Amino acid sequence: MASSQLRDRAMFPASLALLIGGGLLLTSVVITVIAQPTLFPYAEIVGPALFSAALLVFAFGVRGVGSVTARRPVGTIALAVLAAWLLLGSVLYRLIGDVFSNDPAPTALMAFAYADSFVQFALAVVAVMQIARLGAVPAPWNWVPIGIVAAVTVTWLLLQVLGGGSATIYGPNLLTWLLTGLDGLARIGGTVLLGVIAIVLADRVNRRATADVPSVSETQI
Known about the structure:
The structure is a single chain. The chain is mainly alpha-helical. Helix content is about 75%, strand content about 0%. The longest helix is centred in the last third of the chain and has 39 residues, at about 175-210. The protein starts with a helix and ends in a 9-residue tail after the last helix.
């Protein structure tokens, strides 16, 4: 009994970081999918806030343990800044949209959207490259973030290049509709995949830590 408690304490922070981060990612998807402006005020900000919180947990870990960037400066800072930028961006989108509510496509909003996409891409590339290179996440899972960033980037570029066709009386043209759906699938599916992988790895960390920590008899406590 006592030796089991000692093992639990020894492996708790590393697995907890992955478990919390994965749980926050999955919760952010649920909130993003179900949240509507009429659900409650600023509901659309809750999803990005949870996603940003997940990135911070992945960057810094729990009690200094469990960081996917091994707490190295470049990757950790990139993840932390990306988390802050995502949350700030969601707030700014809401504010700009409210200010220019009478304009269906305000120039300020479109300019910020492109700048936002570029900053997100740059920070994400730095972060996922560090995750893959440092090996704090076991292979082959350390390469999954790169694949997701690549998929989201490709779908976004296709949407910008090919998705600008004229709308029909029934709404957006078919190609735009398909590309928008593909982009959303890449973003939501990628987030779900990362969340599930994080939770699975948390369980593996638990099992490995339990096996590695030597037993201590009750008489030695």
